[in-house]
Specification:
Blueprint lengths: L5 E6 L3 H10 L5 E4 L8 H4 L4 E2 L8 H11 L6 H21 L17 E2 L9 E2 L5 H15 L3 E4 L2 E8 L5 E8 L3 E12 L20 H8 L4 E2 L4 E8 L11 H5 L3 E3 L19 H14 L5 E4 L5 H7 L1 H9 L9 E10 L2 E3 L11 E3 L4 E2 L11 H19 L12 E3 L6 H18 L6 H24 L5 H22 L24 E2 L6
Parallel strand pairs: 1-2, 1-9, 2-6, 9-16, 15-17
Antiparallel strand pairs: 3-5, 4-5, 7-8, 8-9, 9-18, 10-15, 10-19, 11-14, 12-13, 13-14
Amino acid sequence: MPHGNHDVLIIGGGVAGLVLALEIADQRAVTLLRPASDDLGSSRWAQGGIAAVLSPSDNLEAHVQDTLVAGDGLCDEAAVRFTVEQGPEAIEWLLNLGVPFTRDTSPGADYPYHLTREGGHGARRIIHAADATGRAVMATLKAHVVAHPRIQVRDDLTAVGLLQDSAGRCRGARCLNSAGRRLDLSAHDTVLATGGASGLYRYTTSPMPASGEGMLMAAELGATLMNLEFQQFHPTCLHDPEGAPFLISEAVRGEGGKLLNIHGERFMPGIDSRAELAPRDVVARAIDSEMQRTASDHVFLDIRHLGEAAIREHFPTIHRHCAERGIDIVNAPIPVVPAAHYSCGGVATDRYGASDIEHLYAIGEVACTGLHGANRMASNSLLECLVYARSCAVALRDASRAPHTDAVNRSTVIEATPPPVQLAEWRERMRVLMSARVAIVRHDTELLKAAEALAELQQEVSPVIRQHGQPGIELSSLWHALRLARLTVASAQRRRESRGLHYNPDCPHHADHHPRPSRVRLAELG
């Protein structure tokens, strides 16, 4: 297929992108940009599972209410209800594809597959594939995508920007290959499935987290970004300063794991009646506070009381990975620390993934549907990927496909970019700033310092951007991330209250009973 005149262009090959490709390909030709790095993104590392009402003892309204409570008053209730109502059918679709979810063989089980419980949920409603759900779902979806004759997978290109026609509509993507050659892919409809922005922070739960590149690419076309200040920190990432990030699933606490400080004392029951099963924002702040109180750089998650058989059955991946790091979780507690995990904000979309730029859609973590509000409830993320990829497919199947001709296709070779050591130094400065001043607890003075320092860093990088006709992949990514970091700080400064994941002791209370989502555009940076 030539690099121009594509029908549906999907940028990103995690769960959301793969689901959409499969759902639309029978009606429309699909080009899927899926760099190799997508295999190390958030979808693959999702351990816990997918939240949906599957057991006869559960009900849709309970899932809705649990989600609204976790979102701390900022969820779009219509989006929550839509997502929850579509959940069971989406899971059935995955089962029909052959995803190997863990079965429940216990006597009297009221559902064929094992359901676990996680923080914020009032019932067992998390369907999973042992403790490696993301890996199992991704493997199944990829096999079907590769086999589909109307899906062209491009693993040789990385999108670094979007194309726009004279009427302001999105018309495809500006891409680079590994040799630095620019290829513009003209498309009728473009869908971002590029992931979140946890890579803005120094410590994350993913080895190769996205840094909000897709969000900023949409913003460059004029799209509205929403709720950027609500960055979720997973309470329990394995504490191993010398090793790669590794998430310790929320399901560990769902199955009875207890949080202990470095003195072996349990602390969550004194903070919240739900103890370790409180929503993630509550647990992450509690851990952060306990670490400061005890002058420690981690706490412990203890599941020794479950016994070796149960640990090996329910958490084989975690057990094996910790053992490789020298930690025997059968006989010793797991050292854990909060780490940047999930972006509740992103490109503002409707329930069909449509942004406010014509022909530009966003699904998965790059989007902000209103489902999560001020704090995402555990395992609603993969649910959102499934539901909104499938609803986006409905919109794309029904969309008008009038021909377009004014998007430009071209192929150029980029100029040399700064040496890798300089790019790494700039990115590290950004991540250190965000982790120190815009993390679990924010203060007015720290946010102001972050805003000033990020603006200075942008001024330092800006001449290099202007120097090159087309920056390389790493420099483009940094440029997107840096401006998104500034928009995130601006959003945090504007919210004069503490709500969900945004906690500022200088304004510790909810502002009113009718909170509004924050909205920001790139033009506001000046």
